[in-house]
Amino acid sequence: MLARCLFFAVAAGAMCAVTTGVSQAQADREELKLVTPPLSIHRNQIRPPAETLPVPAGFSRDHILHGDRVFHGEAANGQCSVCHGIDGKGTPNGNDLTAGMFVWSDGSVRELKRTILHNMAVAPGMDGDLKPADVDAVAAYVWAISHQTPSQ
Ligand code: HEC
């Protein structure tokens, strides 16, 4: 009798656990439907054409080409695109740098350079091994991707 009771108690407990497990998973799925997935997952991230991007005053095409390589992890161990996206349009880990509107600066190369240096302090170890010349180039590159014409 005792064994039988125990069996029922365990079976009921197991059923209870399974039932709550399922309904919890369902509730989680329902809740997830309310969350908009990050745009960076669904858009096709196209690398901006460094050969035709605008060049800011006082800089050359070489700066943009080098900045492009730094941004995409091909020089100075840059990690920018990991967080800001291959197209610079942002991911959940770093904001859109192409909108022409910046949170931390007026968007001039000088100010971008300052915020990039500041960002390196908030993302330690994730900003590569940038030397001053690399920072100049990547700042010019960020200016360039924020001044793309709509066709680019
Ligand atoms: C670990 C992720 C990460 C990496 C790597 C990273 N960033 Fe960022 N970046 C961020 C985040 C997050 C912010 C926003 C910080 C804030 O608002 O306080 C930001 C801010 C910026 C801003 C200022 C944007 C604004 O609206 O004013 C610039 C410019 C920038 N990053 C450029 C770069 C460049 C260039 C690199 C590569 C050298 C880089 N970032 C690497 C995450 C990252």
Can you tag this structure with a few keywords?
single chain; 152 residues; mainly alpha; Cytochrome Bc1 Complex, Chain D, domain 2; 6 helices; elongated
Give the biggest sheet. none
Q: How far is the N terminus from the C terminus?
A: 79 Å
- Supply the number of helical segments: 6
Q: Which hetero compounds are present in the coordinates?
A: heme C
Task: Using the coordinates shown, work out and report the CATH topology of the largest domain.
Answer: Cytochrome Bc1 Complex, Chain D, domain 2
Strand content: under 5%
Element pattern in H and E: HHHHHH
CATH superfamily of the largest domain, please? Cytochrome c-like domain
What is the CATH architecture assignment of the largest domain? Orthogonal Bundle
Strands, total number: 0
CATH class of the largest domain, anyone?
Answer: Mainly Alpha
Helix fraction bin: 40-55%
Radius of gyration: 25 Å
| Average predicted local confidence, pLDDT | 83
Q: How many independent structural domains? A: 2
Global shape: elongated
Low-confidence sequence ranges: 5-18
